[in-house]
Amino acid sequence: MSTDAAGGRSRPSLRGLAGNRWSLLVLPAVVFLAVFFLAPLVTMSLRSVTDPQGAGLSNYTRFFGDEAYLRVLINTFWIALVSTVTCLVVGYPFAYLMTVVSGRVAGLLLIAVLLPFWSSLLVRTFAWQVILRDTGIINRFLLDLGLISSPLTLIRTTLGVILGMSHILLPFMVLPLYAVMRRIDPEYGRAAANLGAPPMSAFLRVFVPLSLPGVVAGCLLVFVLALGFYITPALLGGLHDQMISQLIVQQIQQRLDWGFGTAMSVVLMVITLVILFIASRLVRLRDVFGSAVEE
Amino acid sequence: MRRWTTVVAFVALTSVMAGCGGGGGGSASAAPPSVTGSIPAAPSEGASASAGGSAAASSAACNPPRQDGVKLTFASFGGVYQDAQRKAWLDPYSAATGVEFTNDENSSNATIKAQVEAGQVTWDVVDVGNDFGLDANKDLLEPLDYTLIPRDEVLDGFAGDYRVADITYGVVLGYNTDKTAGKVPAGWADFFDLQKFPGKRGLWDYSEGGILEFALMADGVKPADLYKPSLDVARATKKLDTIKDNIVFWGSGAESQELIGSGEVAMTMIWNGRAWSAKNTDKKPVEIQWNQQIVTADYLVVPKGSPNKDAAMKFIAYTICAANNAKPSSYIPYGPTNKNAKPDPAKVADLSVSNADENSGYFDDTYLIDNFKDIDAAYQAWKTK
To answer: Which residues in chain B touch residue A172, judged by CB atoms under 8 angstroms apart?
Structure first.
């Protein structure tokens, strides 16, 4: 497709918006975002410095002054990172497979990815519990076979958390990957082979770079979603696998210390924004998420 | 500029998705001690009606006037628990007075706070846990009308200016008899004895839910001395260190019931209704050691600014009155708070109050609420160490 075919393709600018009446269509979305996302975010952020009265930065000093809370914060990012890498390692070959098999098989694979969306997160987490715990399926089986004499420690470990979270987050990795990979012209691979590249080299030097926007999109999506998890770590993790959302919920729901709870939320949000900003310096996010239109 | 619009769009997108994924289904909530499973058969009509109150305040409370056209919204913790409250209190009250009830099953301290702060109070009577309703929350609540509610009939320490206990339950030691090989743990000292009773231990991951108190009891602190002069968190966590590798934390009543029923843990701290359900509904080899239980309660409160405040007070008085207060025990093993109330004889052995003795502990709710920042910080430090 040539770029000049559609006027809407050109970068929207403020002047362009004013001149194009169609752009008014975006207004409801903007109003919606302002009312339901921006306003609550601002109210929430303000609360972290005004509750209790005259709080100032006291909620923040309380948070950063306590080693335990910092450990939980670091742990949150660590678990999110490991989950993301796990999803990538599993999701990349899977998405690649979807692009090389026939349409019918690809459809089946797609259903396999989407299937988990239709069952509740809580149910899936409980299912992992049933599989992993000391009296669970794996341990029962191995014990009955006599392969082990005492149960393996599978649950209440970081391993358990990563398994549970990766399972839930995998679709968010596979779908953007597949969307990008699908549009990579197989001719490129053939051209590389034609020019003498062995299959592996053609894959690594042609296909992988072209799929990078999908990789970045998937990783960001999974990472940011993973930061907000708390039920899965609470059910599958051990003492050290607590994530910050769990603390936030406790402050908001039980303790009614909304100042401290919102302060923790702001900390999480700011760090996430910083990460996104850094990511946007390294790769052009717009290309990543707009890749469907750009090509 | 453009970069930021993309970032914002991305954040919006992920927060929408987090709404369906990240949080996913019910917080690991405190307070609701409701049991799951089938409701035991209701007893014969006369069983609990015979327990008539004698005090004057009580009889007035027991016989509320007709109030046709009045509507009340009752918020509690849902499930079998709220069903029991409905059958024991709401339905008969509607029949006697004409008051119509709307039930909300998601009682939460945070919702009360949000309603009051927004000036949009839709809940009139709310069932809350023991972590709410003291002076710390006085800005959110209406003072109770003790000219209607028979305060002097309520168990000592279970009626406050803004809250009155409607049901009592026990935080108890539950054990799986298969895992203890028929031996009976005598109390919390045995809970911490991994030699005598091998296996994992379940504990509620909530610093003020009893974990620290039980560790102290196991270490020899008398229940009456738990908060004298202050809760010794350092001593408690030191005791907890001795079983740290064997602890399995739970976050909801359903989880505790599952852990002890399946034998994943040999023993657990558990709300007595959940242990009861593990045994009677799930048919699992689970028993309760009542020794060194902590007796605690759920409370009724009226959010500040409730448009039906007066009607709410009359209804609360009705639930506390001796003739009515024990009625939920016919449907669920939670006991009365009124000293004169007579629980269903068939259920009396399963109630926390019937099993209370000099070894039983009681939460000092005021102390816990006033000191939760320090207690929780110390607890988190221990946990993440």
So the answer is: 17
